[in-house]
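Batch manifest, entry 17 of 40.
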Amino acid sequence: MPYAILRTAKLKTAGNLGGLNNHVQRLKETPNADQDLTYQNQQLRGSADLSTDVQARLDAAGCTVRKNAVLAVEHVLTVSPEFLNFHKGEANGRAALVGSATDRERLTGFRDRALEWMDERYGRENVVSAVLHLDEQTPHLHVVVVPIDQAGKLNCRSYLGGAEKMRVMQTEFAAKMAPLGLQRGVEGSQAEHQAVKRFYGVVKELTPGLEKEAHELTQKQTNQAVQQRISKAEKGRSQGGGYEI
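Output type: structure tokens
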């Protein structure tokens, strides 16, 4: 059974917001994106200026922003590759992402249920931006939330503070996606996720040619396999002359 995948990242500075906006809006080169398909990306919520969207919500709520406060939280919501079978083709005389009626129905269901879950969790007014990317290998959503709590305070901890809240969030997201035939990843897999991030870094330092292979890792691969490859890479580094993958 394919997986529902959710990752979060805290945005604490104007630079964080600007950098994410550049990526989401394709204002800088994105190696994994197909420029022929970028026109199909969809702005579902907010505008093409993420910083303005976040500031507008903060102003509307009258929040006091403390030093080092989390201004917003990015959520990347996607599925494991086997859930959808889109491919690059042609429609109306130009390149397009094409798939079966079933694929289109699945993507629409995922998009709608994901946004509904975000609204239920954070409040519709706090979900200030949502973009559907269709120009990378697997369709996915970037959704940005300003974490204002029920007391009207900017309070990321109330939503994401601690391992238990993160665990519950993952479980609730998977439950929302279950009617689509998606399941939750193995509980306690955060260690694997961190290991994969380290492996990405090792590969990127060696050569961009191997970075693509790293990004094709899925949750089906075990933490043990990832750790073996990291150990091999770091062994090569310790012996001098770069990494051995």
